[in-house]
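Backbone-to-sequence.
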């Protein structure tokens, strides 16, 4: 099932049955996100997908909570770690839909995939200004649960494209991409003045102290991303032709955070957590002319 949304110069498709993913997003007929290949059943090939009830990796698919060991499924190709939660692996229900907006939901957990029951909801809206996704997570269990949120958009960024954002710190990682040390942003790439991408080598790091704004610039346009998380994970494979600017509520493996490190957020029984991401386009010509 594909849902089609339209508003002004914007068009989007949604793929509820494929991980609640965005299938495409275009502005004035030009793709903003990497479009999903026709007929694919691989959610990793989509334009954007939700990360619930945690983002990125959990080392060895294991952490300790309230004195008990929690074991998470490890997918082929991602060993030895669990990754990105459950939401991207499940079909989502369409609760509401019209020409420019849709509400998708997922009820999951309470089993081997995640010990706590939860509901996730995506409120997806196209406006004259662009795309807005409000992602909400509700703890439906009787006990507090560690949990987090994220969104995983794939922005098209060809040769000469640049990414700019302001963040204070970055997590350095070991050879299996598990964070080891929090360092100044410049230790990897601080992006403050616009870094040319695709990078020569893989960038797969989480930035802390993000001001909530990122811009992806090409000769034709500037795509602006806004989010309310204070953290952003950047994934830019060498020569990949895209860059993922992922708003997240916690860094990778936060469930195993050491003393003094920021850990996994906790949602009380019946409580909620939320995340908002907005994508818009700024005309490079208008920006240069000061209009």
């Amino acid at each position: 099932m594909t849902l089609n949304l339209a508003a002004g110069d914007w068009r989007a498709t949604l793929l509820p049955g494929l991980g609640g993913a965005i299938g495409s997003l275009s502005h004035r007929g030009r793709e903003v996100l990497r479009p999903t290949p026709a007929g694919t059943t691989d959610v990793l090939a989509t334009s954007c997908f939700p990360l619930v009830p945690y983002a990125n990796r959990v080392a060895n698919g294991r952490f300790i909570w309230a004195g008990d060991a929690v074991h998470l499924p490890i997918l082929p190709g991602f060993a030895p770690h669990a990754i990105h939660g459950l939401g991207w692996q499940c079909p989502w229900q369409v609760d509401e839909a019209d020409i420019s907006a849709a509400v998708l939901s997922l009820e999951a957990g309470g089993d081997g995939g995640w010990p706590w029951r939860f509901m996730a909801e995506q409120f997806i809206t196209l406006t004259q200004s662009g795309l807005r996704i409000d992602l909400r997570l509700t703890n439906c269990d009787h006990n507090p649960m560690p949990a987090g949120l994220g969104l995983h958009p794939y922005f098209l960024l060809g040769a000469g494209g640049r990414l700019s954002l302001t963040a204070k710190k970055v997590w350095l990682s070991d050879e299996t991409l598990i964070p080891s040390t929090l360092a100044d942003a410049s230790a990897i790439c601080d992006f403050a003045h616009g870094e040319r991408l695709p990078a020569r080598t893989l960038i797969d790091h989480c930035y802390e102290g993000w001001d909530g704004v990122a811009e992806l610039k090409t000769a034709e346009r500037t795509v602006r991303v806004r989010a309310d998380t204070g953290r952003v994970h950047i994934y830019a494979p060498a020569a990949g032709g895209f860059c993922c600017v992922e708003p997240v509520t916690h860094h990778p493996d936060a469930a195993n955070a050491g003393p003094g490190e920021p850990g996994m957020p906790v949602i009380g029984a019946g409580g909620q957590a939320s995340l908002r991401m907005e994508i818009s386009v700024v005309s490079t010509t208008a920006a240069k002319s000061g209009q």
